[in-house]
Each structure stands twice: as C-alpha cells, then as structure tokens.
Design a protein that fits this description.
By secondary structure, the protein is of the alpha/beta class. Among the domains are: 169 residues, no CATH class; 196 residues, no CATH class. Helices cover 46% and strands 19% of the residues. The protein contains 21 helices and 20 strands. The strands form 3 sheets. It has a 6-stranded mixed beta sheet with strand order 6-7-8-3-9-10, with helices on both faces. It has a 6-stranded mixed barrel with strand order 12-13-18-15-17-16. Strands 2-1-4-5 form a 4-stranded antiparallel beta sheet, with helices on one face. A hairpin with a 2-residue loop joins β16 and β17. The longest helix is centred in the C-terminal third of the chain and has 44 residues. The two termini are 37 Å apart. The chain binds adenosine-5'-diphosphate and magnesium ion (MG). Magnesium ion (MG) binds next to α1.
C-alpha cells in the first residue's frame, strides 16, 4: 500500500463545529438539531469509546464519522483532506478501504452465507475471487466461525452474527472500526466476547471507535468521550498526542495483518476497481440469480410478461409475413399489372359488343399499355393414341409466358412468326404432360390430336402450382392464337377475353381508364365491354395484408412494452424491498455504479431468461400453426429482433429502478426507509 507521508501528529480524523439538523421547516417538518457543534480529533491507533444516553446523537455522529452521512455544518478532515470535497466514489472508497462498520443490528445480507457476507467488501475493492474466499474463510476461522461458513445469518446466533460482521469489517483491512452499540443486542457472554475481540484489534493497531450507552463497556476503551444532547461533555484524553505513539508501537499479532495502520491517500476523481468487467458482471449475475430464485413466484410472473411479449412478436410477425408472402406469390403468378377485358351486353340493354383486331391494335398504341394478348380457351377433346380427355385448350400469342411470368421447363414456346404462319404446335401444361405421356419424360416431337387437327408437342411448361386461381393452368395445353382460330375454334369470331398488361403496376388504374376511354370511343359510346382489374384487386389485398401485418406488429410491440413495464414494476419493488441490503452494500463500500450495475444485471437476467423462454415457446407455437396449416414464415431476423427488443426493454425499464437504488442515501437505506 502506497502511503503518503502522514504526519504522526496529524489527526486521522478531525471534526470542527459539526452540526446535524433533521427536518425542513420549509416543508412543514420542524427543524431538529441533533449535533450542536462537535470538535473532535481522533488519532490513528486510538481505541475511543463514545458514550451517552439514548438519543444523545451517538449514531448520528458515527454515521458522519463513517461517511455514511454528511454533516449539515462544520468541517470533517480525514488525514488532512476535507471530506466535503469528496465525490460519492471517493466516499465509497473511504467506506471500503478505511472503515469497517459493526452495527447493533449486525446488518448482514439475509440471502447470503456468512462467508459471502464477509467477502462483500472485497468484491467492491476488486480482490480476485480465490483470494477473497480464502481471506473471508480464514477471518471467520480466526473468529471461531470455521464451521459456519455456509450458514445464512438466520441460522446463526446473535453473537455469531456480530462476529461475522466484525470479520466483514476486517475484510479490507478494517483500519478504522466503527462499532455502533456492537454489544447492544447480545447477551452478556457474547457481548464480552465481542469486546475482547475489539480490544485485541485495538492492540493490533486498528483504530477503534466504539459507540455505546453503557459506561462499563466504554470503560474498556483507552479514551472515553462523553456526549450529551449533541454536545461533547467529557473527554478522558489528557494528552491526545501520546495516543498514536502508543498504538502504533503495538505489534499486530492477533489478526495477523502485520500492517502499520496507515492508509493510502484517498483517490480523487473516482477510483476504478481492478476487477475485470466480466468478473463483476458474473458476480452481479450470481447475486441476481439468487434473488430471482428466492422470489420464484414473482420472478416467474415477470418472466411470463416478457415471454408473452416475445412470443407474440415472433408469432405475429410470422403470421404477418406468411400472409404477405402468399399475396406476393399471387402477384408473381397473376402479375401485378394485369387487366382482363371482354365483351358483354351493356347495362342499358342490347347485344354484347365485338372486340375486334382493330380495337386491340388501338389499345396497343396506348402509352400505359405494354402488351395486349387475346385469348381463346375452351374445353376441347384432346387425344394421344388411345387416351383422350377434355382439356382446356388455351390459344394465345407467343407473349403468354411473358404476361404470366411463366417459362417452359422443357423444349420451347412458339414464336410470333409461327403464330402468324398458323403453325400446328402445342406446349403442354405440367399435368397435361403427365396425363398424355405418363411414361415419356421427353414428349417433344409427339403429335397430339386437338379437336380434329394434329399438333406437334414442342415444349412443356414448368409447374405452376395450386395457386393459379380457379382454373388450373397445369392441366391446360397451349397453342398459337392464329392456328387455334384456324384449326380448333373455327366458329369463334372474337377472343373469349383479352389479357392486357400495363406498363407497370403503378399505372394499372390509368391503363384501365385509357382502355375504357378508347373502347367507348370506338364502340360509339356503348359500354358493351367489361374490364376486370385483377392487379388493383391484388394490390388492394396486398395493402390490406400489409396493414394487418403492421397492426399485428404493433400489438406485439405493445405486449412487449407491457412486459417491460412488468420488469420495471418488479425492479421497483425489489429496490424497495432491498433498501436495507443496498444500504449495507453502500456501507461496505459499493459505489453508485456498483449498485446500478447490480440492478441492471438483475433486470437483464430476467429479460434474457424471458427472451430465451419466449424464443422457445414462440417456435413451439409456430410449429403448432404450421401443423394447423396456417401460413407462417419465421425469420431469424424477427426472432433476433424480438429477443433484442426484450433485452433492451428490460434494460430501459430496469434503468430507472436501478438508478433509484444507486441514488439512495446510505444512512436512509440502512435504516430501511
Ligand atoms: P443515539 O444513537 O445516541 O441513540 P441518534 O443519533 O440515533 O441517537 O439520534 C439522536 C436524535 O436524532 C434522536 O432524538 C433522534 O430522534 C433524532 N434523529 C435521528 N435520525 C433522525 C432523522 N432521520 N430524522 C429526524 N430525527 C432523527
Ligand atoms: Mg444509536
């Protein structure tokens, strides 16, 4: 330990004019002055007893001495440095490295074992785990608790608990032991043991400040200071300068410290601990896990909130995505820019119109229109060898594969020239191929009889799938439009319907309006035709599905937020329930950042476990949906996103309670307020 040259005549602790008021007249509470100007010097190695009746202000004084509380007025110099200038980290350093507290009520953490309670100050000072455990155990052994290392405080007697707290005070050296009524709750035998221990420590060079209302107890100290109504009314130290010399001369034997009780100067501007971050996180996670286990019901309810949030995000996104994919698939097969057109009797009565080649040529001129494809299609008897079947024979131009985004998987489609030359060619749908040529993987060159004419097979279309609407395109055969009119549909004077492809999906409605305008003009104002806007319908459906997906996502997000609020609620309760624990941790030297980290770790542990369980349950729900035939699409991104959201939500909502905990005033926290 690097120690600055500390003047032996300089007091370790120097109080001047210390006052402490409670209450705030501004907010209606009467102002109570508990300490009325305390002047006190304490030298290194002294064994001082502060004695006074109950309510005289002893504990208030001790809290100020131990930097658990700040005075309302007056100055406090520690090794010559003004404590009022210290930031919260420097004060935590003092509590951790300089002081060791022993309280009347022991103030052990109920959920931790004796050994873990003793280790705590060393956790915050960054001693590696192995050394920490070893030191805690040897201290407990020396104090006669070697058999009780793993016991929780409620499994120990009062005297044993007080010895654990003395071991804790010694963990980081215990240069100055502040003991507030250490024997107050003990029977006379245990009390005597504790006093013997303190005397031993004093002999070993520790500075001991003992607070008691009992004059007999006080008499065991080297110097007795009497306090009454917040004023020092007596001090047995005739020659205070003599005290440090006497104390430092005493060799340290009983505690085996072997140290001169000299402290390093207080580090300013924050003190980083030597422990690597992961070790601190592990430590925080360990104690968080313990807290969660101790409150199983509450933990599982909180987890449930997070799990529901994560599951709903995952499942809803999967359903939304499934629905969207379905529409996209439909768009792919139907095209997003497709209009259908046919003749029909006008609403005003009269015969249906005729859609002529000239009409179609006029439409082809329109800038909004890319392709115009007349179609004739009817069930016709198709024969190969002895097999015959009624097949829907689809007669259209060579543009069919382009319009329908569909390609042959075998051979080729016919060309524009072949169409104009009335070439007798046929391309088979996937199922038609299976039907007529079950044993011929490659039927190219074979002749099919369609109606009464022979057509040569030149291609087989790829499989379209079951999504192609009312008619199954896979069942059909495809022939050129002109040869269809010439050889199969001789009676037909006009197309059954016309497929119009707009320039793009953005202009389908303009294209529809343009077709309407042109045909109306050409048909002398008679609306003897109909236009079906399939693209607009699909687009509308896509938009609906999209907004549904967004809605689902929103609902899911809300449930995740609700889960997060649950985490916050529980964390706030935890903080309230554990104020005393927080106070103890602060008294043994935890920094605000340590407390913040601990509670954030607890929040993240809850959300991490909730997120993990949520992922598993979400996958299970998804599996059930898939089995039930609901179209769901799971994406790793959505799952990772939901998980990340859960963790972030936990951190965000856990931050506020954690901050609340870290900002607690040590004295108030210790009082469990
Ligand atoms: P002792 O330890 O000597 O018994 P304390 O220092 O605990 O006395 O208290 C001294 C006086 O200060 C008591 O009268 C007590 O009521 C008062 N006091 C202590 N803490 C507070 C507080 N937080 N608010 C108001 N009064 C307090
Ligand atoms: Mg008291």
């Amino acid at each position: 330990m690097v120690s600055g040259p500390v003047d032996a005549n300089q007091p370790l602790i120097a109080l001047r004019g210390i006052r402490k008021h409670y209450g705030d007249p501004a907010s209606g509470q009467p102002l109570v002055t508990v300490l009325h100007g305390i002047d006190l010097d304490i030298y290194a190695g002294e064994f001082v007893a502060v004695v006074g009746s109950s309510g005289s202000g002893k504990s208030t004084l001790m809290n100020i001495l131990g930097c658990l509380d700040r005075p309302s007025d007056g100055s406090y110099h520690f090794q010559g440095q003004d404590v009022a200038q210290f930031d919260s980290d420097a004060l935590a350093w003092l509590r951790r490295e300089a002081f060791g507290f022993v309280f009347q009520g022991y103030h052990l953490i109920a959920s931790e074992s004796a050994s873990e309670n003793v280790e705590m100050p060393a956790i915050y000072s960054g001693l590696p785990k192995g050394e920490r455990v070893q030191r805690a155990q040897s201290l407990l052994q020396r104090l006669g608790l070697g058999e009780r290392l793993g016991n929780r405080p409620n499994q120990l007697s009062g005297g044993q608990q007080q010895r654990v707290s003395i071991a804790r005070a010694l963990m980081n050296g215990g240069h100055i032991i502040l003991a507030d009524e250490p024997t107050g709750a003990l029977d006379s035998h245990s009390g005597a043991e504790v006093m013997a221990l303190l005397r031993e420590l004093a002999a070993a060079g520790h500075t001991i400040i003992l607070i008691t209302h009992d004059r007999e107890v006080a008499a065991q100290a080297q110097r007795v200071i009497e306090i009454s109504d917040g004023r020092i009314v007596g001090d047995s130290a005739s020659q205070p300068e003599a005290a440090p010399a006497a104390a430092t001369a005493t060799a340290s034997a009983s505690t085996g410290e072997g140290t001169r009780m000299q402290l390093a100067p207080v580090p300013q501007g924050g003190s980083a601990s030597a422990t690597p971050l992961w070790a601190e996180l592990l430590e925080a996670a360990r104690s968080a896990w313990r807290g969660m286990r101790l409150n199983r019901v509450r933990t599982s309810l909180t987890l449930l909130g997070i799990v529901i949030g994560v599951v709903s995000v995952i499942v809803m996104l999967a359903i939304g995505e499934g629905a969207r994919r379905k529409v996209v698939e439909q768009m792919g097969t139907m095209g997003t820019a497709i209009l259908y057109m046919g003749s029909k009797p006008p609403a005003t009565g009269g015969p249906a119109g005729q859609i002529t080649e000239e009409d179609l040529d006029a439409l082809r001129e329109l800038p909004e229109i890319r392709r115009v494809m007349p179609v004739i299609g009817d069930p016709v008897t198709v024969r190969y060898g002895n097999a015959d079947k009624q097949v829907y024979v689809f007669a259209a131009s060579e543009e069919m594969p382009l319009v329908h985004h569909w390609k042959p998987k075998l051979g080729r489609y016919y060309t524009d020239t072949e169409d104009r030359d009335l070439a007798p060619l046929v391309v088979l749908g996937h199922k038609a191929h299976k039907h007529f040529f079950p044993d011929t993987p490659n039927p190219l060159g074979r002749q099919l009889i369609i109606g009464t004419s022979a057509f040569e097979v030149i291609g087989v279309m790829s499989e379209r799938g079951a999504d192609s609407g009312a008619q199954d395109y896979d069942d059909m055969v495809f022939i050129p439009y002109q040869s269809g009119r010439a050889r199969v549909y001789q009676a037909q004077t006009q197309p059954d319907y016309v497929v119009v492809e707009a320039m793009s999906s953005e202009v389908v409605n303009e294209a529809e309006a343009a077709i309407h305008r042109v045909l109306l003009a050409r048909h002398g104002g008679r609306e003897d035709f109909g236009i079906g806007n399939a693209a607009a319908r699909i687009q509308a459906e896509a938009a609906t599905r999209q907004s549904m997906a967004v809605m689902l996502g929103l609902i899911a997000a809300v449930s995740l937020v609700v889960g997060g609020i649950g985490v916050m609620n529980v964390m706030l309760m935890t903080v309230r329930e554990r104020t005393r624990e927080i106070g103890i941790r602060m008294a043994v030297g935890a920094r605000q950042s340590d407390i913040l980290r601990q509670f954030l770790t607890e929040a993240s542990l809850v959300t991490l476990s909730g997120g993990t369980v949520g992922l598993v349950v979400g996958a299970l729900v998804g599996a059930v949906l898939v089995l039930a035939g609901v179209p769901v699409v799971f994406s790793i991104r959505a799952m990772a996103g939901a998980f990340a959201c859960a963790v972030v939500t936990g951190l965000v909502f856990g931050y506020m309670p954690a901050k609340t905990a870290a900002r607690l005033d040590p004295v108030r926290a210790l009082a469990g307020e």
